[in-house]
Fold these 2 entries.
Entry 1:
Amino acid sequence: SGPNHSMLVGSVALPALVLVALAPHTPDLSRTRRSPVPHAQLSSPLASAATPSSSSDHDILLRAARGEQVSRTPVWLMRQAGRYMAAFREFSDKYPFRMRSETPDIAIELSLQPWHAFGTDGVIMFSDILTPLPALGVEFDVVKGTGPIISDPLRSMEAVLAMTPLDDPEAKLPFIRTILGDLRKETDGKTSLLGFVGAPFTLVAYAVEGKANRHCIHTKTMMQKNPEILHAALNHFADAIGQYACYQIESGAQVIQFFESWAHHLGPTQFEIYAKPYADRAMQYVRERHPNVPVMYYANGGSSYLGLQRDMACDVISLDWACDMREARKTLGEGRLVQGNVDPTVLLGSEEQISCAVADCISKAGGHGHILNVGHGVLQGTPEDAVRTFVQAAKDTPLPE
């Protein structure tokens, strides 16, 4: 059934979803999906790797995200598909980002690499939070060494009103259904598949800035001088992101993460006005349409106002690395499910240091309602063996009594 637009209309904007996890499979790159890249060029060392076998833990991440008691702490990593992996660089060195993320054969292969290599409890779709922007009339490109660039930033009411509704994601973003659908088929009964979206504030701020900006200066100036433009854009994006997240679920995602990647640009009051209500609206839309699909919310740099996230319309709060896990659980309340939050630079340390950090985080989480993750994405230059150690340590560490 199509989106219930009446639930999305209002003076308050929806929040954004953030991450998409994809389920594992051994890629058969000779399949008949049409791709602009010759299949022969898509070979990689992992293409012939053994697919992790089914086990009783195959859905442990999904069950934990639903609040069920599990036998150990589930584990995956934000940005687990990335340039730190040699197999990933075989593609990133050859093909531009949007070709990689919008060509199903490539995106599926990159999504599965970490699961094949490390046995994570979730596969997250290789994509980008900006992927739906062109479907809304906001074009972007990714420049190597610079990042995403929006050549025509969103800085006037006329520009906001000229944006198009998402309406038919199947027509505008067909590759998403292929990627997630194939990942789900190949990972079903073996691991959990995550999808993700950018939260409304983060996407609007990126569209206003046009590129990463240390001070988010254009957006924060708009807050002071033309807040009505910002709210109009946030309303539009909240609607679209709620629909986009549902489209990912209907394509195969079992869990959805909303990424508020630019939360570190916001103070507590700004978060309450410009981020939280729109994220909540989007997430509530998703939860009403798909009540059995867990929704996660990650505010990068948002731990300084963690108390404001206590009542957000999500199932799991994903913590950044700048807060103590035990104190965070006290702030959020014992009933609130959490994810995180090992500092990703710990993965540059020794095996013993990584294992100790994992054990400390699991201990402080208290033995229930916790999914282990890093408190920010895996850093480029992280040794692959360190990620393997991180994942294995999570599996080997018993739950505290």
Entry 2:
Amino acid sequence: KAIKAYGVPDDEIFQTVDLFEARNVKQVVKSLAATGRIAKNKGFAGPTIGPKMSDGEKREWTEEDLRAGRQGVIGLQAGSNKGASQAGVNMGKQRMIAD
């Protein structure tokens, strides 16, 4: 309950059985890394394990930028490969199968 109140997400919290009976050691390690990440984010200055928590990045789009993004289609994005195929491609020696 304390780890949940500290801010660790539910899917990263391990059960006591996972640690005590070594049933799900991966979940225990995941939980420790999440606790370290949250602690670092809350200002803990000591050593931690796990990656740094993302801060996010706010972006401001003008109406012109949004309009340009809706109109543009990047090549081959529409599902066409313009007739390209791998017909006739020979990559190395053929596999020899013997009975």
